Amino acid sequence: MDGPALARGLLDWFAGVRRDLPWRRTYDPYHVLVSEIMLQQT
Q1: What burial letters (b/e) apply to 31-42, b meaning 16+ CB within 10 Å?
Q2: In angstroms, how far is CA 36 from the centroid of its own chain?
Q3: What pLDDT, on a 0 to 100 scale, did the predictor assign at position 13?
Q4: Residues whose CB is less than 8 angstroms from the CB of residue 9 and which lie 6 or more positions away in sequence, other chains included
Q5: For the chain, which residues make up each domain, given as ranges?
Q6: Predicted structure pTM score
Q7: Least crowded by CB within 10 Å, which of 4, 13, 22, 42?
Q8: Cα–Cα–Cα angle for 19, 39, 21, rounded to 5 degrees
Q9: Contact assessment for residue 32 and residue 26, using Cβ atoms and an 8 Å cutoff
Q10: How far apart are CA 21 and CA 27, in angstroms?
Q11: What angle do CA 38, 28, 11 make, to 5 degrees?
Q12: Does residue 28 sit in helix, strand or coil?
């Protein structure tokens, strides 16, 4: 399997099984920073 086909397969799989997580809903830099800090604390 070549690289692009593997990447496409992974993206298709992820689209079907991904979870709705709060830090995926926004691209606001402040919210991303806060979520990164919180995730490192666990």
Answers
A1: eeeeeeeeeeee
A2: 12
A3: 96
A4: 1
A5: 3-40
A6: 0.51
A7: 42
A8: 20
A9: yes
A10: 13
A11: 80
A12: coil
Tokens linked to 38: 């919180």
Residue whose pair of structure tokens reads 């809903």 in the numeric block: 25
Amino acid at 17: V
Read off the tokens for 13: 């799989």
- Residue pair 9/21 in contact (Cβ under 8 Å)? The answer is no
Give 1-42 pLDDT, tens digit per residue. 799 999 999 999 999 999 988 778 888 999 889 888 988 986
* Residues tagged active-site: 36
Residue 13: phi and psi, rounded to 5, are -65, -45
